[in-house]
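Minutes, project check-in
Item: structure for the 439-residue chain
Input as provided by the requester:
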Amino acid sequence: MSTLEDRVGEILERASALVGTTIGEALELTAPTLLPSLRTKGDVGGLYERFFGVGGGEAGPDFADVGIELKSVPLIKKSGRWQAKERTAITQINYRSVCDLPFDESVLDVKTRRILFVFFAWHPNVPSSDFVTLGALLHARRPFDEALLRDAYEHVREMTLAGRAHELSEAQTPGVGACTKGSGANLVRQPFSETMARGRAFAFRSSFTTALWNESRAATMLLVPAATGSVAEFERAVLARMRPFRGLQASAISDRVGDVGFRAKSALATLTRRMLGAPASGRLSEFEKMGTVVRTVKVRADGRPYESMSFPYFRPDEVMHQTWEESTFAGQLASIFVTVFEGSRSDRAAAEFRGGFFWHPLLENEAVIRREWGRAIELIAASRLGGIPKASETVAVHVRPHARDRSDRIAQPDGTLVTKQSFWLNRDFVSAAIRQHEL
């Protein structure tokens, strides 16, 4: 009988054979009777399970004999880089057992200790048989990964114990979330409320699996190499690294951490990375997995920002089809790392660093943000970008141009061209968060 190490070696050898081949080519040798079904979109995850000869059990890892879970991740190419197309479901949430069992005794814990991720290139209107496997990664869970999983589990547990499982949202926790399963009609009972709740599953968010793909292809930097027991502990460690620079002018900080060219608009963002001990560019592992967006805010002496907080421009024909929980914008708001500098609008070198904070706006303001986002999406779908409420007419979110110049345009659903637009968090909304964090 082979040892466990031999069995793992067999699995990895089989996974390596997939790389560079289409799913059709791989199954031709192992399950030729499946080939007719591959002409449709199909269940790609199920096809990989057939290839490896596992059944996809819900209660434990797929490769039960060696404690390895199998997950397939579709990748799409954007701006020349591969990224995960969607979240990756891990296991169904049972609202009763999540209250009765600690994380260490949960199915979520058991299924995430070791995972074989298989990454494949997804393309629209292409049969599953033509999807190419790009890579395979056997990932042993790291302390920070466990922190993300624990935080998501505890969040769901606390909400359920409070009788608020119906208020859960995937974007309320970074990296790992409680995603919806099935249609909106998929309602289940929760133990401490008469209100029915959406059926949900724990899932790695696309930011997490994108980070794993990037780690498998190139080096990434850990901000806090020491083990962290929770996301809050990680955030405190990051903020402690920034604390010695509070009250210093940007030029003085630059003298300590490495010269920053203050002519560039991105100078303060670069300085932020240097204060973190990171190079001016490159991937930061924990931030990538959390999906953390980094934003630098310039404020007046009274603490009010000069501008609203912008996000990348969107494609109207894409966002009009997104649901709130699966939307790009909800993902961007799950975790924001904000650094605050005080000074004149134009003099970056003289700006004083007031501090930083991690901001999770959806934990307290999801209802209003979701409502204002939803109204904007309705008007985007109707090709009425010009009719979206302005910042003065909303509490938290507005849409306005975000382009190089007026010639930088994009098509609305009806084909008419408009200047590229993006979502912005209102200046007063950001200002309130800065005051709340006493900066």
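Outcome recorded: The mean pLDDT is 91.
No further action items on this chain.
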